[in-house]
Amino acid sequence: MPGDTFYITTPIYYLNGHPHIGHAYTTIVADAAARWQRLKGREVRFMTGTDEHGQKVLEAAEALGLSPQEHTDRLVVHWKATFERLGIAHDRFIRTTDADHVALVTEVLRKLYEAGEIYRGDYEGWYLVKDEVFVTEKEREERIASGELAEQDFRRITEANYFFRMSQHRQALLDHIEAHPNFIQPENRRNEVLGFLRQDLGDLCISRPRSRMSWGIELPFDPDFVCYVWVDALLNYLTGAGFRADGDEAYLKWWPVDYHLIGKDILTTHAVYWTTMLFALGVRQPQHIFAHGWWISSDGAKMSKSTGNVIDVGLLCDAFGVDATRYFFLREIRFGADGGFSYDGFLSRYNTDLANDLGNLAHRALSMTTKWLGATVPARAEPDAALRAIAERAASAFDQHLGVLEPKEAIEALWELVRAGNKYVDDSEPWALNKAGKTEALASVMRDLLEICAVAGLLLQPVMPGKAAELLQKVGLDNPRAQLASLLSAERVLDLLQEGAPLQLGDPLFPRFREMPESIASLFVPEETMDEADVPLPELEWIEYPDFAKLLLKVGVVLQASDHPNADKLLVMKVDVGEARPRTICAGIKGTFSPEELVGRTVVVVANLKPRKLRGIPSEGMILAAGGEIVTDLVTAKAAPGDTVR
Ligand code: MSP
Questions:
Q1: 580-602 tens-digit pLDDT
Q2: Which of 212, 254, 364, 640 has the most crowded CB, counting CB atoms within 10 A?
Q3: Which helix (H) or strand (E) is 43 found in, with range?
Q4: 227 sits in which H/E element
């Protein structure tokens, strides 16, 4: 029996990466689960955030001439904006640089050290900087041989370090997994962890010498070392619960956490490192660790910024709306499985489920009622018995599935009802009832249809908060929270609306897209030649698209600017274009701009213009300007250094 609190977390994201659908995905699922529990009256804590320490962040900050804190403060803005755009209602956005988190990590490390769970030893091994992990010789060889990584991705490291006695907790972990079949989900991931634990489990290196890596939380028992970024990151889940290492039990309000949602690639760190740390601390295990699959682009390629196949969630929201975007990710694949993403797949899911099934049902119910019976909820004696049974089943299945992180199955259960509603319209032919003057029968049919819309609106609140509220308003339903309770308790199924409540027909909820929205279609414009006569433009030396495509235009932010020492018209700037180090760019805009007013401005940089020296200073690009102004109108607030301008 669940308690009256619910705590759910997403991984905290490496903030030096760009937010993409992989990150959006976990966060949308967690948000839907959290919203559902809130609607059901539980007190909820939903936490997401960013993982901010570590080598990569430090190196990127140094290259930009910024302190790591300044660098992370700049980057975190994109993450928060992305989640806001997606309607994510988190209770806390945690940053591992937050003061309470730093204090907690310090306290926990001290406690583990004093308990003898941490010892000092020597370490020699291969370090994979990209993932901030040590790897075995065998793994290194395999990953180089497969072509996935290169020799220079690994560093040979020999150093004194601190270790956590992870191996001591192996048996306790095995016993816990055996005794709690739903602890690690889905089943295949549970088996993966059991397989991993069948091998020898070593101890975990939990420190990095400050001489090599200073951007981290200092070990309280040795200031020459900072905490390994994964140990720091995992502890965020306890910070979010308000854990204190001094025995204060207030955190038990939230702990054990109900769900840690993670991607399959970070299973070992959660199911082994984290759980053994909890054993060592004497803190209870999470109720569930749920590892989902990966979205890959439809050609089967893993999404990565370098291959350019990252799907921009902002683009999807602009084109189809945030609610449809959330719907797609919750409905398209079973949570746990891998999924292939294609824009065509998105469009067809939108048109089939949202425009045709739900949108059509709502529009038919509202427009026919309004036209023939007036714009209020009509009276009727009893709901149709068969429909009532379907609605009751749909509501209960929806609740059960969403409660155990099965959003696809939950939505499918609701769609049984939506489809039954559309079939009911076809079968009962309200237009014929109207024509024959059978007003009472007509009112019954229309009322049932409006009631189905009310059920859909109530259940879809966690999935599509905006559209669900709109639908409920259209059918005149007040007080959704109380009504949801009476629906789920089967007290009032297809009996939620008040006779006489006002209906609002308005525009269709989900207009049909006959073709791909322009903003997406333009990503894939097919080649067609034009007659010269169709081009009433001046004689120009036209270039072909491939010529244009050679131009790499990037968004940059000016970090520094000063007068060129040897040229009257030139300014010298350092511009962050999202690379490991800023570019030096000389531009002939002195006189138009003072160096001070340029710092912090967003510019468009021609990034692949061959570098050359201008009066003794190398210039590694060009910034676009027109009419005495820098070209920034092209750039929206959403663009980040390194984004490509097209
Ligand atoms: N910072 C660590 C997590 C620490 S949690 C204590 C991290 N960050 S990450 O930004 O690299 O990845 C975060 C999550 O994004 C992972 O769960 C990963 O599985 C997920 N995804 C990244 N790309 C993805 C897809 N293409 N598809 C689905 N999820 C993917 O790891």
A1: 788 999 998 888 888 888 888 88
A2: 254
A3: strand 43-51
A4: strand 222-227
User: pLDDT tens-digit profile of 605-625?
Assistant: 999 899 999 889 999 999 988
Structural domains of the chain, ranges and CATH numbers in brackets? 341-488 (1.10.730.10), 545-634 (2.40.50.140)
Q: Is the CB of 49 under 6 A from ligand 1?
A: no
| Ligand 1, atom 24, residue with closest C-alpha | 22
What separation in Å is there between the alpha carbon of 199 and the centre of ligand 1?
Answer: 26
- Confidence (pLDDT) at 545: 67
Cα(466)–Cα(464) distance, integer angstroms: 6
- The H-assigned helical ranges of 199-342 are 229-234, 236-241, 267-268, 275-281, 313-320, 322-332
CB of 59 within 8 A of CB of 553? no
For ligand 1, what atom is nearest to the CA of residue 233? 6
Mean pLDDT, residues 397-414: 98
Give the position, in ligand 1's atom list, of the atom nearest the Cα of 17: 10
Give the nearest ligand 1 atom to 265 CA.
Answer: 19
Q: List, for residues 271-305, the tens digit of each pLDDT value.
A: 999 999 999 999 999 999 999 999 987 655 566 55
pLDDT digits (tens, 9 = 90+) for 176-199: 999 999 999 999 999 999 999 998
Q: Which of 361, 475, 461, 620 is nearest to 32 (CA)?
A: 461
How far is 22 from 175, CA to CA, in rounded Å? 32
CA distance 98 to 571: 38
* Phi-psi region at 246: left, alpha or beta (left = phi > 0; alpha = psi -120 to 50): alpha
